[in-house]
Amino acid sequence: MTPSHAAASVPPAEPVPRLLNAWQHGFPLVERPFDALGLPFGLSGAQVRATLRQALARGEVSRVGAVFGVGAGGNGMLCAMQVPPHRLESVAALVNAEAGVNHNYAREHRLNLWFVATAPDARALQSIVARIEQATALDVLRLPMRRAYRIDLGFDLFGAHAPHRAAANDAPPVPPHLHALAARLEDGLQLVARPYAELGAAMGMDEPAVLACLRQWCAQGTVRRLGVILRHHEFGVTANAMTVFDLPADAVDAAGARLAAQPGVNLCYRRSPAPGWPYTLYCMVHGRERAAVRAAVEAAAHGAGLSGVPRELLFSSRRFKQTGGRYFTPTSP
Fold first, then answer.
1. Rounded to whole angstroms, what are the CA distances from 82 to 89, 96, 277?
2. Burial class, 257, CB count within 10 angstroms (exposed 0-12 / middle 13-18 / buried 19+)
3. Beta strands 141-143 and 75-81: pairing type?
4. Cα→Cα distances 51→7, 26, 144, 237, 274, Å
5. What are the backbone angles phi and psi of residue 259, rounded to the nearest 5°?
6. Cα Rg for the chain, rounded, in angstroms?
7. Which of 77, 176, 88 is nearest to 127 (CA)?
8. φ and ψ of 269, to 5 deg
9. Terminus-to-terminus CA distance in the chain, angstroms?
10. CA angle (132 as vertex; 143, 139 as ends), nearest 5
11. At a CB cut-off of 8 Å and minimum separation 6, what does 104 contact?
């Protein structure tokens, strides 16, 4: 056994969930980021990479990569379907088959299947949804996002409420000649000693150029978060609910700003209404217990002055798919 393999086999002193939790944000933009990541915990870079490989194998981590800001590139849309219960499994499988679908959940509602589709452009996005309608012989409710007020899926697994920062809706876009780099970053960094050198090698970019580019993207908000992307279900965060509010168009933005600042709210955004679906303001609360999530939603609605506004609460009941968005990677079959 080589010394590096021996070092990687030493178990970390800190419990693994706490390590992964700490690594969700601020991934080091240096030549050997895994060495820097492990330093505060007394871990070598080899131990960090071994810990991440094991977490990937267990399904606790989806990738080590980037979450791009709203406006950085591509198109995305939330969609909903009313699926006969006996067809739910088969329809979910058809939805999952689309590479551009990155999230797909069953929810406790007559609209019982909700998915997010992403694509490099609007035409490709509409093609994904049209193929799903054709394959399933069911209508898809299209709910495009109009404004983000809070987007935080790097929330603390252990309950700390992160300080609220208003979500930017106009992140500087990725230049077309760097879309290939962004696409590779969507896939995630390779767990090698110098991942940025590997990231750029396929495109003829050297390590300093890749690092300079990523530093700029992170500083200006093109990349909203660079770090370990966790799959929260694997840590017991399974009692997750989407709340939708029926607000007139001229009241949504002020209400959204208030709602986004409430403790427990991880996502908050405005979406277009659709036929039979008047809701314009959405928020997500994630938790371990349904009662606690309900209480958090009530408190958030009260704190935002929305207690009397018509709303619906939709708990997720099953996760069919959870991967990263594909804003820069072609998604055609």
1. 13, 16, 12
2. middle
3. antiparallel
4. 12, 18, 38, 21, 45
5. -65, -40
6. 20
7. 77
8. -160, 160
9. 44
10. 55
11. 92, 95, 96, 113, 114, 115, 116, 319, 320, 321, 322
Residue 287 to residue 275: CA distance in whole angstroms:
31
Name the token pair of 20: 């992964």
Alpha helices (runs of H) in the chain, residue ranges in sequence order:
3-8, 16-22, 33-38, 45-58, 88-96, 122-136, 179-187, 195-201, 207-220, 252-260, 290-303
CA 170: distance to chain centroid? Answer: 18
Residue 323: phi, psi to the nearest 5?
Answer: -140, 180
Quote the CA–CA distance of 296 and 327 in Å, as a whole number: 32
Q: What is the DSSP string of 43-80?
A: --HHHHHHHHHHHHHHTSEEEEEEEEPTTSSSEEEEEE
What are 194-248's pLDDT values in tens digits?
999 999 998 899 999 999 999 999 999 999 999 999 998 998 899 999 999 999 9
Q: Which residues of the chain have pLDDT under 70?
A: 1-14, 152-154, 159-168, 331-333
Q: How many CB atoms lie within 10 A of CB 52?
A: 23
| Distance, CA of 93 to CA of 86 (rounded, Å) | 13
